[in-house]
UniProtKB/TrEMBL annotation:
Residues 4-65 form the HTH asnC-type domain. One of its GO terms (molecular function) is sequence-specific DNA binding. This is Leucine-responsive regulatory protein. Keywords: DNA-binding, Transcription, Transcription regulation. PROSITE patterns: HTH_ASNC_2.
Amino acid sequence: MANLDSIDNALLAALQDDATVSLDQLAEHANLSRNACWRRIKAMEATGLIRKRVTLLDPEQAGCPLLVFVMVRTNNHDAEWMRLFNRAVSLFPEIVGAHRMTGDLDYVLRVRVADVAAYDRFYKKFIAQVAVSDISASFVMEDIKDTTALPL
Protein backbone atom coordinates (compact mmCIF):
# COMPACT_ATOMS: atom_id res chain seq x y z
CA MET A 1 0.00 0.00 0.00
CA ALA A 2 2.72 2.43 -1.00
CA ASN A 3 0.43 4.91 -2.76
CA LEU A 4 -1.36 6.61 0.09
CA ASP A 5 -3.33 9.70 -0.78
CA SER A 6 -4.42 12.56 1.48
CA ILE A 7 -7.67 10.75 2.34
CA ASP A 8 -5.80 7.60 3.43
CA ASN A 9 -3.45 9.76 5.51
CA ALA A 10 -6.41 11.53 7.14
CA LEU A 11 -8.02 8.18 7.99
CA LEU A 12 -4.79 6.77 9.37
CA ALA A 13 -4.06 9.88 11.43
CA ALA A 14 -7.55 9.73 12.95
CA LEU A 15 -7.23 6.00 13.70
CA GLN A 16 -3.77 6.44 15.24
CA ASP A 17 -5.22 9.11 17.50
CA ASP A 18 -8.27 7.05 18.52
CA ALA A 19 -8.98 3.61 17.07
CA THR A 20 -12.41 3.58 18.71
CA VAL A 21 -13.72 6.41 16.53
CA SER A 22 -16.87 5.32 14.70
CA LEU A 23 -16.95 4.61 10.99
CA ASP A 24 -19.43 7.45 10.56
CA GLN A 25 -17.07 9.89 12.30
CA LEU A 26 -14.14 8.68 10.19
CA ALA A 27 -16.14 9.07 6.99
CA GLU A 28 -17.15 12.58 7.97
CA HIS A 29 -13.57 13.46 8.93
CA ALA A 30 -12.28 12.29 5.53
CA ASN A 31 -15.27 13.67 3.60
CA LEU A 32 -16.22 10.20 2.34
CA SER A 33 -19.33 8.08 2.28
CA ARG A 34 -19.52 5.43 4.98
CA ASN A 35 -19.04 2.62 2.42
CA ALA A 36 -16.07 4.29 0.72
CA CYS A 37 -14.45 4.84 4.10
CA TRP A 38 -15.05 1.21 5.10
CA ARG A 39 -13.54 -0.05 1.81
CA ARG A 40 -10.39 2.05 2.27
CA ILE A 41 -9.89 0.83 5.83
CA LYS A 42 -10.48 -2.79 4.81
CA ALA A 43 -7.96 -2.40 1.96
CA MET A 44 -5.35 -1.02 4.38
CA GLU A 45 -6.03 -3.93 6.75
CA ALA A 46 -5.79 -6.46 3.89
CA THR A 47 -2.37 -5.18 2.82
CA GLY A 48 -1.10 -5.20 6.39
CA LEU A 49 -0.64 -1.43 6.62
CA ILE A 50 -3.11 -1.47 9.51
CA ARG A 51 -1.75 -4.39 11.51
CA LYS A 52 -4.18 -4.29 14.43
CA ARG A 53 -6.11 -1.96 16.70
CA VAL A 54 -5.13 -1.93 20.35
CA THR A 55 -5.85 -0.26 23.66
CA LEU A 56 -2.94 1.67 25.14
CA LEU A 57 -2.71 1.37 28.91
CA ASP A 58 -1.28 3.80 31.41
CA PRO A 59 1.89 2.01 32.63
CA GLU A 60 1.68 3.41 36.14
CA GLN A 61 -1.93 2.36 36.66
CA ALA A 62 -1.16 -1.04 35.09
CA GLY A 63 1.58 -1.63 37.67
CA CYS A 64 4.66 -1.30 35.46
CA PRO A 65 5.71 2.36 35.58
CA LEU A 66 9.46 1.80 35.20
CA LEU A 67 10.72 1.73 31.61
CA VAL A 68 14.18 0.23 31.19
CA PHE A 69 16.32 0.18 28.07
CA VAL A 70 18.46 -2.95 28.22
CA MET A 71 21.54 -3.03 26.00
CA VAL A 72 22.76 -6.50 25.06
CA ARG A 73 26.03 -7.55 23.49
CA THR A 74 26.92 -11.08 22.49
CA ASN A 75 29.97 -12.82 21.10
CA ASN A 76 27.81 -15.56 19.67
CA HIS A 77 25.88 -14.85 16.46
CA ASP A 78 25.08 -18.36 15.29
CA ALA A 79 21.59 -19.56 14.41
CA GLU A 80 21.13 -21.59 17.60
CA TRP A 81 22.03 -18.64 19.86
CA MET A 82 19.62 -16.38 17.92
CA ARG A 83 16.89 -19.00 18.26
CA LEU A 84 17.45 -19.16 22.04
CA PHE A 85 17.55 -15.37 22.30
CA ASN A 86 14.34 -14.93 20.28
CA ARG A 87 12.65 -17.62 22.38
CA ALA A 88 13.75 -15.93 25.60
CA VAL A 89 12.47 -12.57 24.36
CA SER A 90 9.09 -14.09 23.51
CA LEU A 91 8.77 -15.68 26.98
CA PHE A 92 9.03 -12.45 28.96
CA PRO A 93 5.95 -10.20 28.96
CA GLU A 94 8.11 -7.50 30.58
CA ILE A 95 9.90 -7.11 27.23
CA VAL A 96 7.66 -4.75 25.26
CA GLY A 97 10.15 -4.21 22.44
CA ALA A 98 13.23 -5.99 21.15
CA HIS A 99 15.45 -4.58 18.44
CA ARG A 100 18.54 -5.99 16.68
CA MET A 101 20.98 -3.15 16.17
CA THR A 102 23.92 -2.05 14.09
CA GLY A 103 27.00 -0.55 15.72
CA ASP A 104 28.38 -1.33 19.16
CA LEU A 105 25.21 -2.90 20.53
CA ASP A 106 23.71 -6.12 19.29
CA TYR A 107 20.22 -5.72 20.80
CA VAL A 108 18.18 -3.15 22.68
CA LEU A 109 15.25 -4.32 24.75
CA ARG A 110 12.47 -2.10 26.08
CA VAL A 111 11.38 -3.54 29.40
CA ARG A 112 8.43 -2.48 31.58
CA VAL A 113 8.52 -3.39 35.28
CA ALA A 114 7.16 -2.16 38.60
CA ASP A 115 10.45 -1.03 40.13
CA VAL A 116 14.20 -1.69 40.34
CA ALA A 117 13.66 -4.87 42.36
CA ALA A 118 11.32 -6.18 39.66
CA TYR A 119 13.96 -5.35 37.05
CA ASP A 120 16.55 -7.29 39.05
CA ARG A 121 14.26 -10.34 39.11
CA PHE A 122 13.69 -9.98 35.36
CA TYR A 123 17.44 -9.63 34.76
CA LYS A 124 18.30 -12.78 36.69
CA LYS A 125 15.64 -14.85 34.90
CA PHE A 126 16.61 -13.46 31.50
CA ILE A 127 20.34 -14.19 31.75
CA ALA A 128 19.50 -17.69 32.98
CA GLN A 129 17.69 -18.25 29.66
CA VAL A 130 20.35 -16.99 27.25
CA ALA A 131 24.09 -16.34 27.52
CA VAL A 132 25.22 -12.80 26.71
CA SER A 133 28.68 -11.27 26.81
CA ASP A 134 27.49 -7.94 28.23
CA ILE A 135 24.18 -6.55 29.43
CA SER A 136 23.52 -3.11 30.85
CA ALA A 137 20.44 -1.12 31.67
CA SER A 138 19.35 2.50 31.62
CA PHE A 139 16.31 3.50 33.62
CA VAL A 140 14.02 6.14 32.14
CA MET A 141 13.71 9.09 34.50
CA GLU A 142 11.16 11.06 32.45
CA ASP A 143 9.14 10.41 29.31
CA ILE A 144 9.50 13.55 27.21
CA LYS A 145 7.79 12.04 24.19
CA ASP A 146 6.36 8.55 23.90
CA THR A 147 4.00 7.87 21.02
CA THR A 148 2.85 4.97 18.92
CA ALA A 149 1.72 7.25 16.06
CA LEU A 150 3.83 7.05 12.90
CA PRO A 151 4.56 10.26 10.97
CA LEU A 152 2.41 10.38 7.86
